[in-house]
Amino acid sequence: MSASREARETGTTAESAETPKSPAGRDDITVVHLMRHGEVHNPDGLLYGRLPGYHLSELGRQMAERVADHLSSRDITYVVSSPLERAQETATPIAKAHGLDIATDGRLIEADNVFQGKAFGVGDGALRRPENWKHLVNPFKPSWGEPYIEQVVRMMSALEAARDAARGHEAVCVSHQLPIWIVRSFVERRRLWHDPRKRQCTLASLTSFTFMGDKIVSVGYTEPARDLVPAHLLAGAKPVKGNGKAFGA
């Protein structure tokens, strides 16, 4: 059975819950945490997307350390990251706390976007330029970047690879807001097109998928560094005009 079909047939819940007990004789309960990276140093407020050279801010490093502390007592046996610097830097304290090396998986990378490198704030930036309007014709695909379904396919594949690497234990995969939200939406059988302001995927948050064998049986969400996250970057917050980091990446 394909990963996509299996995900469609899986019943899940968005509630954070205890890991279910295995049936007698089975020890293959595996938890894969999809973690969004910490805050990025981005003084110009650009949509940085897949561009290299964007590193965690000092606050972002504090967020990464906070999550490492939060996970220190968990049975983490595998840590893997998107190849982008901000994700690698977020993974570092977690891997260190468990004496692990960081694996890199290109499938965890940020979604491609034609607006990367441009200002993308509310009421200013790239959306005001008529030459960019052609990229906005189909928000359901979306027409301005990597199709949602392609994100689902690669992220499900990365999830399953992490599950296999940590079978019977726990794994941490450091990725980016949109791919994490899209794969969660798919698993929870929600439509993939959405209002970016309503993504429940705050900086340094954990979206945790519990597998029993090869099937996802629950989805949980936690924000270990919530008190460190600027208010306008919390899920559901009203964007600040002129702040290109309003939706993060």
TrEMBL record:
InterPro entries: His_Pase_superF_clade-1, His_PPase_superfam, PGM_Phosphatase. GO terms for cellular component: cytoplasm. Residues 1-26 are annotated as: Disordered. Pfam families: His_Phos_1. GO terms for molecular function: phosphatase activity. It comes from Streptomyces himalayensis subsp. aureolus. This is Histidine phosphatase family protein. It comes from the Bacteria. The lineage of its organism: Bacteria, Bacillati, Actinomycetota, Actinomycetes, Kitasatosporales.
